[in-house]
Amino acid sequence: MEVGGRRLKTRETMAVESVTQSGPPPRSRPTKTLFQNPKLPFTVALLFADAVLVFLIIAFVPYTKIDWDAYMSQVTGFLDGERDYRNLKGDTGPLVYPAGFLYIYSAFHYLTQGQVYPAQILFGVLYIINLAIVLAIYVKTDVLPWWGLCLLSLSKRLHSIFVLRLFNDCVAMMLLHAALLLILHRRWNLGLVVFSGAVSVKMNVLLYAPPLLLLMLKAMDIGGVLLALAGAALVQILLGLPFLVSHPVAYISRAFNLGRVFIHFWSVNFKFVPEPVFVSKGFAIFLLAVHLIALASFAHYRWCKHEGGLLNFLHSRYVLTRLRFALFFSTSSKKFGTSSSSSIKILTKEHIVTTMFVGNFIGIVCARSLHYQFYSWYFYTLPYLLWRTQYPTLLRLILFMGVELCWNIYPSNSLSSVLLFCLHLIILLGLWSAPPEYPYSENKPSSHKDK
């Protein structure tokens, strides 16, 4: 309303504007195009060197038989027409992955005829593609020094997971990294579709869901958020349709079982916990509570600090949505829509990656059981997370090598699991104590970008 020629702001308008009133961002560094970035030649050389290493591993290191034959047995049942998840089984037990896994590994079965050596070559290519995507994310964020990119190729365990074990975790994480790269290019709808595809291969990708939802609320209005979520849900429905139509209960209960209890022997992170406690429901509830509290704390005090905290941010989004509906048919709706849309700014690439990687890492710290292949869930985030702390470089490298050491001790023991847990806590403490970056870019959104 206007009084004496001055426009007075309502409480709702002030709440909406409070989202971005935390002060001007620091002076941005001059941006460089991809081919002007000095890290580009180094990443190309790193990819080539790692491709040679992968070739040598496939040629000279014996393959380890674990899950590939079981995958092929499950896929064979699917290709033979079986649609009841209770009857899709392999050497290691019943199928427990969503339908996307079956489609992708059916394609692998067709390309390799179920043979191990062609599958290793295929997974070697998959490894290089995944590494290229991860390197693109790191180059776009420009958090690591050029030599720090080498850390992404120095894991003995990761090479083993990809080309000596052929786990489906590799496929899921490649799709997740591809989704993140799309989001960095502000292709939110397509990124959510690929993200949903990753979930359809293995559900650990859902650890990224809470921070992703928060970023969507920052980057889009409520209509855009609902549209992107609808696209992700549609992917799950379409992929699972043959099973949902024939045996829906069996599919949902087995493919999306969140209450699985893993075997204590294979735990890498909580081997020091006595087995009766490890398998107990109380321990699972405790870890879930810690997980949710840690996510809420980081969201309130770190990720939404510049918006006045999580509750203030959510309230402003609620007010904005209510005002949009209230003024939708009013004569001032066009003017309001223009002014309110300006309150939703472009997120910086560093804020997106930091929020996603930290949110996933919190889930890793609170996971009841991490098996050896689960290292792929967060290894590629470790260098980024370490350089987001304020620790000296030497300590960062010690933490990185310590985590890698723990994952290469087989079988895990109480000492190695305690050490891994402590290393995780030190990294998490460093992330908590680091100053949060300003989340918004000064650049204006382009009209052709996907919102």
UniProtKB/TrEMBL annotation:
Keywords: Endoplasmic reticulum, Glycosyltransferase, Membrane, Transferase, Transmembrane, Transmembrane helix. It is an enzyme of class 2 (transferase). One of its GO terms (molecular function) is dol-P-Man:Man(5)GlcNAc(2)-PP-Dol alpha-1,3-mannosyltransferase activity. It is found in: Endoplasmic reticulum membrane. One of its GO terms (cellular component) is endoplasmic reticulum membrane. It catalyses: an alpha-D-Man-(1->2)-alpha-D-Man-(1->2)-alpha-D-Man-(1->3)-[alpha-D-Man-(1->6)]-beta-D-Man-(1->4)-beta-D-GlcNAc-(1->4)-alpha-D-GlcNAc-diphospho-di-trans,poly-cis-dolichol + a di-trans,poly-cis-dolichyl beta-D-mannosyl phosphate = an alpha-D-Man-(1->2)-alpha-D-Man-(1->2)-alpha-D-Man-(1->3)-[alpha-D-Man-(1->3)-alpha-D-Man-(1->6)]-beta-D-Man-(1->4)-beta-D-GlcNAc-(1->4)-alpha-D-GlcNAc-diphospho-di-trans,poly-cis-dolichol + a di-trans,poly-cis-dolichyl phosphate + H(+). Pfam families: ALG3. It is a multi-pass membrane protein. The chain crosses the membrane at residues 40-63, 95-111, 117-139, 160-184, 190-210, 222-245, 282-301, 417-434. Its main location: endoplasmic reticulum. Residues 1-32 are annotated as: Disordered. InterPro entries: Glycosyltransferase_ALG3. This is dolichyl-P-Man:Man5GlcNAc2-PP-dolichol alpha-1,3-mannosyltransferase.
